[in-house]
Design brief:
The chain is of the alpha+beta class and 381 residues long. The chain is built from 13 helices and four strands. A four-stranded antiparallel beta sheet has the order 1-2-3-4, with helices on one face. Helix 2 packs antiparallel against helix 3 and helix 7 packs antiparallel against helix 9. The longest helix has 25 residues. The protein is globular, with a radius of gyration of 24 Å.
């Protein structure tokens, strides 16, 4: 009995040692589920509708909120233009292009322990590294799951109603976007904007927002008891876009060499990393990445000893090979500012999204995903 007990303890120690050297925790950590999406209110004031929109945005449901804030006619416009764009594109090249971007997120998530155990990262202070690691894992997870072929379903895009596609896409990406909002709130970023109704007459209103990147007044129209976002330049912009698409031959966008440049370049960089059999082997590959990127990174670095330096000791001096990076690099050029990825166009500046604006920045939330903690080789994620 004692022998069997010692064998069990020995096996447990071996299993823990093996897990400690694994490239990522098993199972892969996921962010906590966000609050459930709430449909747009009916028979409410415009300001109450904007409060609803902000709440859904903070809860990670930016894409679905924005789509459903459009009137049915505009939703049909989006569906038509999206399908037309797909029809003008070489679908095989598009899938390869998207897959190459998705693989970057996949690499970071599935090799997270090895990546964040990179020796040069030890030059960063613990708080900075926690911030970078937490945000990078969330963004990588968003890319990995959001651009997965089972999420995008490009081969079915022309046959699935747009509202259904948006809803299912939102279900996949909302946990990551909600967690990024939580990171934004933790960083002390503003959690939204204030709105003022400048004019409201006959079911049409003009709204001015404070705290958004765009200072242009926004137009809303009441339809069937709901307020909908109806920008004045919608028809003009839509016409221009459709004319540009109509001028393209079917199936030619991204066809040929133009569609292979990005996938080929990304593959050259990350396929060796996927093939790495140990943390040390991956770190050697990462050395090459930093050496090639050093000239570009240097342009974003603050002067030595400046207050913006993130490396221990300030400025560039904290990293022995001159790879120290300042706050501006991580928070701006890498898109790592919490809540700073942008949202669908037309609603200002905000949390994670795909366009140039959003309903405010950041917002409260909670996320206890174990992926957000620091972990050296074999650390607990």
């Amino acid at each position: 009995e004692k022998t069997r007990g010692r064998q069990m303890i020995k096996q447990q120690v071996l299993d823990e040692a093996k897990a400690a050297t694994a490239p990522a925790p098993t199972p892969l950590p996921k962010p906590s589920p966000p609050p459930i999406y709430k449909p747009a209110p009916v028979d409410q004031s415009l300001l109450e509708t904007l409060d609803w929109a902000m709440d859904q945005h903070r809860n990670g449901h930016t894409f679905r909120m924005f789509f459903e804030l459009l009137p049915p006619g505009h939703q049909s416009d989006v569906e038509r233009v999206a399908r037309k764009a797909i029809g003008k594109t070489d679908v095989n090249s598009l899938q390869k292009f998207v897959k190459s971007i998705q693989s970057v997120g996949d690499l970071i998530v599935t090799r997270q322990r090895w990546i964040f155990a990179y020796p040069k990262f030890e030059a960063f202070d613990e708080d900075t590294m926690d911030l970078v690691e937490g945000n990078l894992l969330l963004v990588a997870g968003l890319i990995r799951d959001g651009l997965h072929e089972d999420t995008l379903r490009l081969d079915e895009f022309s046959s699935v109603p747009m509202k259904d596609w948006v809803r299912e896409f939102d279900n996949t990406v909302a946990p990551y976007m909600f967690a990024l909002m939580d990171q934004a709130a933790s960083a002390g970023l503003p959690d939204g904007a204030s709105f003022e109704v400048l004019e409201e007459k006959d079911g049409v209103a003009t709204v001015q927002a404070e705290g958004l990147s765009s200072q242009e007044p926004m137009k809303f129209t009441q339809m069937d008891g709901q307020w909908k976002f109806t920008p004045d330049d919608w028809d003009e912009g839509l016409k221009k876009l459709e004319e540009e698409l109509d001028a393209q031959p079917d199936g030619q966008l991204l066809a040929g060499v133009s569609g292979q440049i990005v996938p080929t370049t990304i593959s050259l960089f990350i396929q060796p990393a996927f093939a790495a059999q140990s943390a040390g082997e991956l770190h050697g590959i990462m050395d090459g990445w930093f050496q090639q990127a050093a000239p570009m990174l240097a342009s974003f670095m603050p002067p030595p000893g400046s207050q913006n330096g993130m490396a221990r000791g300030g400025g560039m001096g904290g990293m022995d090979d001159g790879y120290g990076m300042g706050d501006d690099y991580y928070e701006g050029d890498m898109g790592m500012e919490p809540g700073g990825m942008g949202t669908p166009p037309g609603l200002g500046r905000g949390g994670p999204g795909m366009g140039g604006g959003g309903l405010g920045r950041g917002g409260p939330g909670t996320s206890d995903a174990p992926a957000l903690g620091r972990g050296g080789p074999g650390g607990p994620g």
